[in-house]
Every structure is written in C-alpha cells, then in structure tokens.
Amino acid sequence: MDIRQAIHFEQAETLDTEGLRRHFLIEDLFVAGEMRAAYSHYDRLVLLGIRPEGTPLAFSAALAKSAGVADFLERRELAVVNLGGGAARISVDALDHVIAPFEALYIGKGAKGVAFAAVDEASPPKLYGVSAPAHASHPTRKITQDEASPQALGTSEAANKRTIYKYVHDGLLPTCQLMLGITRFEPGSVWNTMPAHLHDRRMEAYLYFDMPEDRMVVHLMGRPEATRHLIVRNEQVVISPPWSIHSGSGTGSYAFVWAMAGDNQSFADMDFVPMGTLR
Ligand SMILES: O=C[C@H](O)[C@@H](O)CC(=O)C(=O)O
Ligand SMILES: [Zn+2]
C-alpha cells in the first residue's frame, strides 16, 4: 500500500525534486491486470488504478485493512470513471453495471461484492477510482458524459480553452464528500485552472491522461507566493493539498480527472489568486 502523509507547506517548501515527487506524485497506479491503490492522509482520499484483464478484480484484504474494516466500502464511498479502452462490467450488490468509456459509476457506502471486469477481454477498460470516508449510504448510480453538464471555459488567446464535465457533484446525485469530473482541452490549448485558485476547505487529486509517452504537463503546486512544479507524465496522479494551487501547462493537449473531498461540495467555492501574487 502506497501511503502518503499529509504535510505542512513549511516542510513541503524544503523539499527537492525527489522529495516533492515522493510526497505528491503517484507514478505507477495503472498496471495491466491489477488493482493498485494509494492512500492519502489529506482527507483520507484513496486513489485506485483498476485494469481488469481476464479475471475480475476485487478489493484486496490489504485495502480493507488500510481502512481497518472487513470490507473496503464498509465506511467509504467510491466513484469510478472509465478512461477508455473498452466497457467495464462493475458488479455491486449482485447487480451488474456496464460502464462505457467516459461514463462513471458512484458506489455508495456499504456496497458489497464489488468486482471489476472487462466486457470484452480484447479491449479491457482503464478504470480510475477515488474513495473517501462516508457517514451515510447513498444510492449507487451510473453517470453518462451527457449528464455531466459540459461547461465551456477559457479562450484560445489564453491557451486555456477547455470543457469541464462534472460527473459527481451535488447538483446531480447525493454523495457524502466526493466530487469528480473530467477536464478536456481544445487542440492548441494547454493551460489548466488558470487563473489559479485555492480552496482550503477541500483537497484535490489530479489524474492526467490522454497523452502520448513523450508529452508532459508541468503541474504547478504550492502556496501562490512560493510555487513549485512537478513534471507529470501520462496516467500519473498529483495529490493537491488544501494549501496548494493546482494548475499546469502541457507540451500538447491532454485531459485530467479532478476529484475533491473535504468540508463542502460547492464547486464554485474557490478563492481566486490574483495573478500578480504568483511567485
Ligand atoms: O476546483 C476545481 C478544480 O480545480 C477543477 O475543476 C478545475 C479545472 O478543471 C480547470 O479549471 O481546468
Ligand atoms: Zn480546485
């Protein structure tokens, strides 16, 4: 189990390249035929890379142990999004849900018998899961891309023309904490989340994807007045602490899954950073 501690910005600001990557970047979550997990102590968010090939994948005993329960979702909720490949068959409480590429499934607290499989073994899905502690059990539900209320943002002059799809948010379905969406760029647009913002109330995790191997995103993190950067490759995840901006620019277009947990579920609750204060 890959466990990441929550650290103060005073410590983060003393770290070198390797130190920043060790605490904030997850490089190897997606491995064919495996379910891999990383546990962040920021809001106890658990990130899952799930790539079923052949045999269906279920939560391991080690994963349940990390939460101190018999069944991983005993006191947690989970959102899973299909990043492409083929469709996935996700079993929950003896019901099968077929989740096509760019569809998502919310699974409520207490769900049992959860298993992930490829619908067609010749085109296995790539699934990304995000789980947070939950106090109530909300209904399991599939969300399509159309339901994710696409919202156009940015301009080509600022190289940040993009569409935000909100899959898991309180306007669409109830969850305890989780919010999740996908942001996609127009060709030639490369800047995400610019102007930058903070939301100390919620931590965030960014999974960058849809990039060829030689492409990179320069992810900006840190306090606005003391930024650092991480070089991020395809299918790597950045853990974004509550005190940090989360923004970046790519050497070409890309997409990313953003997910949040914390005190409120208001997507619009952001403190914009005056651009002049960035250092
Ligand atoms: O709090 C919200 C998250 O940072 C993302 O939704 C921002 C984002 O996708 C973007 O501006 O490109
Ligand atoms: Zn944000």
From TrEMBL:
User: Which residues fall in a coiled-coil region?
Assistant: none
Catalytic function, reaction form: 5-dehydro-4-deoxy-D-glucuronate = 3-deoxy-D-glycero-2,5-hexodiulosonate
Q: Which cofactor does it need?
A: Zn(2+)
Which pathway does UniProt place it in? Glycan metabolism; pectin degradation; 2-dehydro-3-deoxy-D-gluconate from pectin: step 4/5
- InterPro entries reported for this sequence: KduI, KduI/IolB_isomerase, KduI_N, RmlC-like_jellyroll, RmlC_Cupin_sf
- State any single GO MF term: 4-deoxy-L-threo-5-hexosulose-uronate ketol-isomerase activity
UniProt-annotated binding residues for Zn(2+): 197, 199, 204, 246
Q: What is its EC number?
A: 5.3.1.17
Compositional bias segments (type: Polar residues): 146-155
Q: For the region Disordered, what residue ranges are annotated?
A: 130-155
**BP-aspect Gene Ontology terms:** D-galacturonate catabolic process; D-glucuronate catabolic process; pectin catabolic process
Enzyme type, top EC level: isomerase
UniProt entry keywords in alphabetical sequence? Isomerase, Metal-binding, Zinc
As to how many cofactors bind and how, the note says: Binds 1 zinc ion per subunit.
Q: Which domain of life is it from?
A: Bacteria
State the protein's purpose. Answer: Catalyzes the isomerization of 5-dehydro-4-deoxy-D-glucuronate to 3-deoxy-D-glycero-2,5-hexodiulosonate.
For this chain, the family text in UniProt reads: Belongs to the KduI family.
Name of this protein: 4-deoxy-L-threo-5-hexosulose-uronate ketol-isomerase
